[in-house]
Amino acid sequence: MRLCRFDDQRLGLVRGELVHDVSAALERLPAVRYPLPSYDPLVAALPQLRQEIEILGKSAKGRPLSAVKLLSPVANPGKIIAAPVNYRKHLEEALADKGIHHGKLVEEIHKIGMFLKATSSLVGPGEGVRLVKTERRNDHEVELAVVIGREGRNIPKAKALEHVAGYCIGLDITIRGPEERSLRKSVDSYSVLGPWLVTADEFGDPSNVQVGIKVNGALRQDANTSDLVMPIPELIEYMSAFYSLRPGDVIMTGTPQGVGPIRPGDSMEAWIDRVGAMTVAVSAA
């Protein structure tokens, strides 16, 4: 199943090049009052709503994907957790290019751990990236994004994928400079998720999928998740030792080699096997 959010907070079932409006399924979500839940209610209820979504999708007229504005498929992640330098060749690249980490010592992921991105930085591909500090280097980083579907803490890696709702394409946009990582990566619109959520049962094994991005038609990044230093089950085990993982939490699993600058007016086309592709426009804030 491929689920998207589009236009004015509509829920869509994606089939081929068409999106079918299944927003009526949202009426079955439990009503909430203050204090609001610290997880995404739709992702949490997805196992119970799947059958209704599929039924609604059969009767709903399809609209071309090209005619809708795609939002982030996850509306309310409790947190966005990111894995730095988690591809072997990107680690080599970062060690060789002092501009990537502003001359700082770059260490492998097992030593430096993870970092958090502000949820306010999250947008969908139809909203675009709005660059700030354009006098400095702003880089693209394409990643396989994992969306947690079931709550867990201290999850063993052997059971980690049982906690995954699905997968998306993620873009971790970064301002290069001396400041702490989370500050430079948490700017509004610097976390792009899309174009839709592919449920775990349809996506299958995440350990051998191709990840790539072009900027203005020129290939920048093209790698395979088999090159991850810390594979996804190990990432989930590691992160859940520090945090309770809840439905809708997003894990950015790391970017491969080939990171490079983007500028206002650029167009990014990112793709991941078994997810698809998304085009994201770059502008100045």
Short description:
By secondary structure, the chain is α+β, with helices and mostly antiparallel strands. The protein is built from six helices and 20 strands.
Keywords:
285 residues, alpha+beta, Fumarylacetoacetate hydrolase, domain 2, 12-stranded mixed beta sheet, 5-stranded mixed beta sheet, 18% helix
What report would you give on this structure?
This protein is an alpha+beta fold. It folds into 2 domains: 2-70, no CATH class; 80-284, Fumarylacetoacetate hydrolase, domain 2 (Alpha-Beta Complex), CATH 3.90.850. The protein has helices at residues 41-59, 88-96, 109-112, 181-185, 200-203, 232-240, and strands at 2-6, 10-15, 18-21, 62-64, 70-71, 80-82, 115-117, 122-123, 129-131, 138-140, 142-148, 164-172, 174-175, 191-199, 210-215, 218-224, 250-252, 260-261, 267-272, 276-284. Strands 1, 2, 3, 4, 5, 6, 7, 8, 11, 12, 14 and 17 form a 12-stranded mixed beta sheet that branches. It has a 5-stranded mixed beta sheet with strand order 9-20-19-15-16, with no helix packed on it. Strand 2 and strand 3 form a beta hairpin. It is globular, with a radius of gyration of 18 Å. The mean pLDDT is 94.
